[in-house]
Amino acid sequence: MLDVLHELEPVVAENLERHLSIVKPWDPHAYVPWSRGRDFALLGGEDWKPEDSPLDPVAKAALTVNLLTEDNLPSYHREIATRFGRDGAWGTWVGQWTAEEGRHSIALRDYLVVTRGVDPSKLEALRMEHTIAGYDSGDKSPLEALAYVSFQELATRVSHRNTGRASGCPIADQLLARIAADENLHMVFYRNLMAAALDIAPDAAMQAIRDEVVGFVMPGAGMTDFQENAILIAKAGIYDLRIHHDEVLQPILRFWRIFDRDDFGATGEQARTELAQFLDLVDERARYYEEKAAARQ
């Protein structure tokens, strides 16, 4: 697998150059309505009260999940630095990606604290808990890691964008659109690398893609109340199984031409067949939830 990483190095360098030519720097502080801020009790002001928040329960849940997910950046950095290395083009990308991702939690937390969107003390307790627990993807191979982050970056982009739209706040919408733009560029980088990996090692790459689609979970799945919040988020149409199937899995699989390729051996063909069967199950399950939701209306 180290040979694949070595063979991908020129593709990394090319896509890093492309990324740096189009990425736009931005200031987290510029997206925060500082004039709405006020002191908390320690400095003579008032601590947070539920009635301070302008957000509805869905927006609170979605913004909290999104922020806590971004808070685990130290763990994510460790994961990709371990898988891809810290030398050459790979190492340069790891640093660039980490620096860009760091803006997301800064801006989201400042927005929520200044606008008193959620209880800041509870938010800090959750941050401590979630960051101490960290994130461990297990023993993913580099190809499995590439497949996972291709889907995960797009899932995060969709989640951020839809959260902004559902927030009811034009400032949050603008901020989350800016964050989503970063996530999209990150997805494109990893997606392009995985496309090259499919040409270099088609069977191994296909198996990695199957495994990561079948076993996919969002990186924030271990946080407190994640399942309850995920249900709220799904019912609000921010991120549900239909969105995951139609707007995350399918576009990337089409880009990789997974079901049009003719360069797989026996193991690759088996993995592709198993992937197709799983996608049918996801589509069927999504349809079931849609029918249940329609029946409740």
TrEMBL record:
The keyword Iron applies. SUPFAM superfamilies: Ferritin-like (SSF47240). Keywords: Fatty acid biosynthesis, Fatty acid metabolism, Iron, Lipid biosynthesis, Lipid metabolism, Metal-binding, Oxidoreductase. The keyword RNA-binding does not apply. Gene3D superfamilies: Ribonucleotide Reductase, subunit A. Its cofactor is Fe(2+). It comes from the Bacteria. Homodimer. Belongs to the fatty acid desaturase type 2 family. This is Acyl-[acyl-carrier protein] desaturase.
